[in-house]
Amino acid sequence: MNDLKVSVIIPVYNVEKHLARCIESLINQKFDDYEIIVVNDGSTDNSPQICDEYARKSDLVKVIHKQNGGVSSARNAGIDSAVGEYIMFVDSDDYVTDDYISTMYECQIANPDHLIVCNVFQKTEHEKEYKALFQEMAKDVVKFDKEDYFLLYKTGLSGFPVNKIFKKSILLAYDLRFNTAMTLFEDLVFVAQYYQKCKGSVVISKPLYCYYILDTGAVRKYRKNLFHHYILGFNFRIPLITKDYLTDFCDIYLKLFFHCLKNTFDERNTDSLFKKIKYNNSILKSEEFIFCLEHASKKDESPKYIKMLQRKNYLWIYLREKMKSLVRKR
Known about the structure:
Layout: E1 4-12, H1 19-27, E2 34-41, H2 47-57, E3 61-66, H3 71-81, E4 84-89, E5 95-96, H4 100-110, E6 115-124, E7 131-132, E8 141-145, H5 149-154, E9 164-167, H6 168-173, H7 186-195, E10 200-213, H8 226-237, H9 246-263, H10 273-284, H11 287-295, H12 303-310, H13 314-329
Parallel strand pairs: 1-2, 1-4, 2-3, 6-10
Antiparallel strand pairs: 4-9, 5-10, 6-7, 6-9, 8-10
Helix pairs in contact: 7-8, 8-9, 9-11
């Protein structure tokens, strides 16, 4: 196949219920000169047959069947097979508007050195209507300088690859791929690495991507080493944060780290109390936590609680919470 303008990659694993809707939305695009690469990642349901059926019906669709290796492995296989000058990603339980490719592509051509991002519609299984993820944009298109990455981060649109378009030449030149060793936030790392090669970002206010949140999805699972995943995201993002935004950025991540401390005591964690305290102490002693505690505004926390955190011994915090719980029960 000759080189095309765009390759759209769909990683597929056991999504027979939603797959047809996804592929149909991509076949019916108001755009020419593109391909749809469907990567079946060892599905055990009827997904492989659905993939093959669409490949027979449409010349746009190319199917790759591979052993199960996870979503990152599937996306990487798609990248390696792509012939498009630009690469886009769509998750198999989602779908897109009919101007998804054309709008993103035209914006990229107009802003060749920037990362192009579109707004997203989202809804859960139990919601009836999709809602725009970011609703505060006054313009059709907003352009951010590279130094203003935090403003892109605040939109909530920065972390996932499905609402973006990527230059294949950049992916190849810097050997950018999804980290197959990561089970969480691999999207964030991939996008942050790519952003470092750009001069800034352009956000399209119109939602072009429809994100379907499965209530049984990975984001709702208990994560034993959640802090490890958060610090990976922190360390890839912190080089993009300038001094003007550092306090606000650390405010956000400090709250995430507080969540990690609470996550340790999730009822699904079967570790002993000793191990839980020890793990949380490792969080309090980490460079990332100490850095955020130093640079955050800490406006929502009492000075007494901050001092307890600075002692780097979670036992005192645990005892404090136990005492507060006993008082509330009286």
